[in-house]
Specification:
Residues 264-520 form the GP-PDE domain. The chain is α/β, with parallel strands linked by helices. Helices cover 24% and strands 27% of the residues.
Length: 591
């Protein structure tokens, strides 16, 4: 959707606090009575959010394209962002360090429709940007550096700007699982939400691992062919720094409607409470069995400083006891059982012991309590069980988010948000989200809102990922095919048979003039694998002449040679919703 550039209001500060309330049954939305406090400058300030040009594509939440720029004459691009190097004089420089043009000439161009990604090298540049921020709104830029400490200083000096950690040249990273953990920790410690990762890490498994831990992943690509561009796209990265963004644009345009290059994560809300008692080990294990990628739970701290898993501040609704859980000792909590199935109330330590052995499952801990000792107790437990690489945190309480930043700096944080006021203006709503997530260096975890899909499309260029919570089935399907990053549900069982992966041989040989299909191994959300056939194909350029069957579920090559083909699978959820997934390029030898 194209929107004209408009004036926006810059909100000076934003805070949300929540009070727990008792409920009678599991609801499709979180049972938090959010209250929002918005404070506005008495003198309104015009915000510099850009009406970004979009790459035309049917890919759901396609990656943002960032064109590398060294010359002002190269600023004409189809990409949504441009990558520039900046010096302490706020001049854009080329790879040799030669000045090309002043940053302000680019920012002041009223007709521009690109966002700048600015590589910075020193504190002097930050100080110059801070001075510039007094007369110009520079919040809609991204500062990139391989110096984590420089990005931390950027967060302190110019908190309204977003940052990206550049790990491309880090020689200590050797492409093993432990190094992925290092990427997560260093990105969080730099107060960055975006990580530009080394090329050897660009594959679907690595990218998915990082994204599950709430990291926005960008790749750097010098792709010179459609085959090379397609390989990067299929990895599912959120953004691509490209020497030739036009190649990526050309490949993206060939995908069919509702293509998912990146699988949305399924988050088991308190486990799977429609089948088991919420926030119990049994509920968590059942959700894992159903294929949930992430298990969400809520924690409080007992009177004797133990972390326990419970949604409400009282035990009245879910157990056979009464009273505030933080007024109880652990021994008293352990005497309680749930009303429905007589399950024990677990400690967080028991969750750690139960979930950590399960490969790739992440625990999303919501910090429910306002107790200032909560995060220090969480830190002790995380260190005791070496759980840093399986954990993310969320909270409505911004003071607890800040405590995580201070005491568990390597752990990702998510900003929980209730029913935010909708101004009716997409730019204004997106700008507010941009400001809030940058302030807390967090991902965005909202209640459902009618403009959610449009907001995701706009803010993906700003490194923001969306993790809406506790949705009903129809809303879940709508957001799933829209490519939402992660979706929280009470009913993981409804989605356990979604087909989420397709694998084929790396190369096949066919005869010219003969219709052919490509055999595939398909995998469902719960991990079940079975044999099948690809039912969608994309033939990349410079391939021999060919014809598709009417449904594009088979190909006939009419001349000999070598082709590169993306094999796909269309999954029909119901009569209304469907999506496509694809392999990387397959070498097809036509004889």
């Amino acid at each position: 959707m194209k929107l004209s550039l408009i004036s926006l209001l810059l909100f000076a500060s934003f805070s949300v606090y929540a009070e727990n309330v008792n409920i009678k049954s599991i609801q499709p939305e979180k049972t938090i009575n959010d209250q929002k406090i918005f404070q506005q400058h008495t003198e309104q300030q015009k915000a510099a959010a850009i009406d970004v040009q979009e790459v035309s594509s049917h890919v759901a939440l396609a990656p943002t394209l960032i064109q590398k720029i060294s010359n002002i004459h190269d600023l004409s691009t189809q990409a949504s962002q441009v990558f520039l190097r900046l010096d302490k004089n706020l001049d854009v420089i080329d790879a040799a360090g030669q000045t090309r043009f002043p940053l302000q000439s680019y920012l002041g161009n009223a007709s521009r429709r690109t966002i700048p990604v600015l590589e910075i090298q020193d504190v002097a540049t930050l100080k110059a940007l801070k001075i510039l921020s007094k007369t110009h709104d520079i919040s809609d830029i991204t500062l990139l550096s391989h110096h984590a400490d420089l990005l931390r200083q950027a967060h302190d000096l110019i908190p309204m700007v977003r940052t990206a950690l550049d790990l491309r040249s880090n020689t200590y990273l050797a492409n093993n699982p432990k190094d992925l953990d290092i990427i997560v920790q260093k990105t969080n410690q730099a107060y960055a939400r975006i990580a530009v990762i080394p090329n050897q890490y660009i594959n679907k498994n690595n990218v998915s691992f990082l994204q599950k831990l709430l990291i926005t992943v960008w790749a750097d690509s010098a792709a010179a062919t459609q085959k090379e561009a397609a390989t990067v796209l299929i990895s599912g990265v959120n953004g691509i720094l490209a020497t030739r963004s036009d190649l990526f644009h050309t490949v993206l345009k060939q995908f069919p409607q509702n293509t998912l290059l990146r699988k949305p994560f399924i988050i088991g809300h308190r486990g799977v409470p429609t089948l088991e008692d919420e926030n119990t080990l049994e509920s968590a294990r059942h959700a894992v069995h159903l294929g949930a990628d992430i298990i969400e739970n809520d924690i409080y701290i007992t009177q004797d400083k133990h972390l326990v898993v419970m949604h409400d501040e009282t035990v009245d609704r879910t157990t056979d006891g009464k009273g505030k859980i933080e007024n109880m000792t652990l021994a008293e909590v352990k005497q309680l059982t749930t009303k429905a199935r007589k399950r024990k109330i677990p400690t967080l330590a028991e969750y750690f012991e139960s979930i950590k052995p399960v490969n790739n499952v992440v625990l999303m801990v919501e910090l429910k309590s306002a107790n200032p000792q909560l995060v220090s107790a969480l830190k002790a437990q995380v260190e005791q069980y070496s759980f840093q690489n399986h954990l993310v945190t969320t909270s409505f309480r911004r003071e607890q988010t800040n405590q995580v930043k201070s005491h568990l700096s390597g752990v990702s944080t998510g900003m929980l948000v209730g029913n935010m006021p909708n101004t009716g203006n997409l730019f204004s709503n997106a700008y507010q989200i941009m400001q809030d997530t940058q302030k807390y260096s967090s991902t965005y975890h909202p209640a459902y809102r009618s403009d959610l899909v449009a907001l995701m499309g706009m803010t993906k260029h700003r490194g923001i990922t969306f993790w809406p919570w506790a949705l009903d089935d129809q809303t879940f399907k709508k957001l799933y095919v829209a490519g939402t990053h992660g979706i929280t549900t009470n009913s993981a069982q409804l989605y356990s048979k979604y087909i989420v992966d397709i694998k084929t041989a790396a190369a096949v040989t066919v005869k010219s003039g003969q219709k052919f299909y490509i055999n595939a191994e398909l995998k469902t959300q719960d991990g079940t694998q079975f044999k099948g056939k690809a039912n969608q194909y994309i033939v990349l350029s410079d391939s021999p002449s060919h014809q598709f069957s009417p449904k594009k579920d088979a190909i006939t090559f009419t001349s000999k040679g070598t082709a590169y083909v993306l094999a796909g699978y269309r999954y029909q959820i119901d009569q209304q919703y469907f999506y496509h997934i694809f392999t990387g390029p397959i070498k097809v030898i036509i004889q």
